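[Discussion] Sanity-checking designs against the backbone

I'm trying to build intuition for which residues belong where. Below is a structure token string of 134 positions. I'd appreciate it if someone posts a full sequence so I can compare it with mine line by line.
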């Protein structure tokens, strides 16, 4: 099922599209997440404060508030975070690393973004990215 949904996502990028250029938050940290396809699109931005996730679904950009979390990844983020909206639940599972050459942030070498909507296929896409802090 996941392979089929992932294949559908890769064939139809309008389901989860690019969010475009994003600004750093005025305070706290943000995780900028790209898909891992050869064309690399910025598909999500998670902020630690306020705790929300921005993504582009079905042609519109939406912000979804954090509903729950498990574990600590660093920079105000959990290892697994669930974001809930009126008609969507998104689960971000990510690892965070610090590197000596990066100041005020970190790297997300690997993660997954799972999008669940009632009556529709579950979408799972691999992501990677950077965390920047104000």
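Best answer:
Here's mine. Compare freely.
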């Amino acid at each position: 099922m996941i392979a089929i949904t992932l294949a559908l996502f890769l064939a139809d990028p309008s389901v989860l599209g690019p969010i475009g250029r994003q600004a750093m938050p005025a305070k706290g940290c943000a995780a900028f997440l790209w898909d891992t396809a050869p064309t690399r699109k910025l598909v999500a931005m998670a902020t630690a404060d306020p705790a929300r996730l921005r993504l582009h679904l079905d042609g519109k950009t939406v912000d979804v508030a954090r509903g729950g979390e498990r574990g600590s990844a660093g920079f105000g983020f959990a290892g697994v975070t669930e974001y809930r909206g009126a008609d969507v639940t998104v689960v971000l599972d990510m690892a965070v690393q610090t590197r000596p050459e990066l100041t005020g942030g970190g790297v997300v070498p690997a993660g997954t973004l799972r999008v669940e909507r009632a009556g529709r296929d579950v979408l799972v896409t691999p992501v990677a990215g950077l965390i920047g802090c104000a």
